Amino acid sequence: MHIVIMGCGRVGSTLAHILEDQGHSVSIIDQNPEAFRRLRSGFRGRRITGFGFDRDVIAEAGIERASAFVAVSSGDNSNIISARVARETFGVDNVVARIYDPRRAEVYQRLGIPTVATVRWTADQILRRLLPEGAEPLWRDPTGAVVLAELDSGHLWVGEKVGALEEHAGTRVAFLSRMGEALVPDRATVIQDGDIVHIMAGSDDVERVNAAVAARNGEDA
After folding, report:
1. How much is the pLDDT for 188?
2. Tens digit of pLDDT for each residue in 95-142?
3. DSSP readout, 49-105?
4. Where are the domains of the chain?
5. What pLDDT sits at residue 17?
6. CA distances from 81 to 87, 101, 105, 168 (A)
7. Burial of 71 from C-beta contacts in 10 A (0-12 / 13-18 / 19+)
8. Residue 105 and residue 103: Cα distance in Å, rounded?
9. Closest Cα partner for 3 from 81, 91, 62?
């Protein structure tokens, strides 16, 4: 694929290197030509100096043949405007914008522009290191409505099938962590000793799911 990145900071340059290593062609835009010094000497992609929301600039970056556009500059307004230009003017479907303000991220997510809310993500990661294991979700969507979380009492389901757990707790098992590797189960997958069960649920529903699991196992005991 050809991918256009706006912003050659630490995130943008890292993305450019990873994507190029995976065999994609990359153009990267930044208003400051000094920012391109973050790119390795062997970087083969195009470096374009300018603003990512300038139509001529992103056209020079090859937006008309791009499969994706990523806006990761330091400015929320610049990121969202350039993302909208890429999608609405040039018809790029796969567009992602980094937004520092989580309230703005929620608004644009509802408008159909995928966003990464940096402040919310960073806060979540810090909380996961401060609070007891399982107290904070592994991931939440920008609106806060859906979370990925560890199941508190997953170890009590050893020997049971994933489908039984899902049916009893009224939830969806996203994946299992087994011996340091991730496993996407089906309903017939048997939970083994040491597995960590991760569920997808509404943010207001995680407590109910954990209570249902604990109550069921209390009855069995």
Report:
1. 95
2. 988 888 877 777 777 777 777 777 666 666 666 655 555 556 777 776
3. ES-TT-HHHHHHTTGGG-SEEEE-SS-HHHHHHHHHIIIIIT--SEEEEEES-HHHH
4. 2-122, 134-216
5. 93
6. 10, 15, 13, 46
7. buried
8. 5
9. 62
Residue 194: DSSP 8-state:
T
In CATH terms, the superfamily for domain 2-122 is NAD(P)-binding Rossmann-like Domain (3.40.50.720)
The neighbour count for residue 14, using CB atoms within 10 Å, is 12
The answer to whether residue 189 scores a pLDDT higher than 80 is yes
Q: Give the max Cα distance, the chain.
A: 69
What value does the mean pLDDT of the chain take? Answer: 84
Q: Which amino acid appears at position 9 of this protein?
A: G
Tokens of 170: 């009224």
The label of the residue with tokens 């608004």 reads: 107
Residue 3: name the closest of 21, 22, 27 by CA. Answer: 27
Residue 73: Cβ-neighbour burial (10 angstroms; 0-12, 13-18, 19+): buried
Q: 162 with 191: CB under 8 angstroms?
A: yes
The tokens 């929620």 sit on which residue?
A: 106
Q: Does domain 134-216 bear CATH number 3.30.70.1450?
A: yes
- The type of residue at 176 is L
pTM reported for the whole predicted model? 0.63
Please report, as a single letter, which amino acid is at residue 205: D
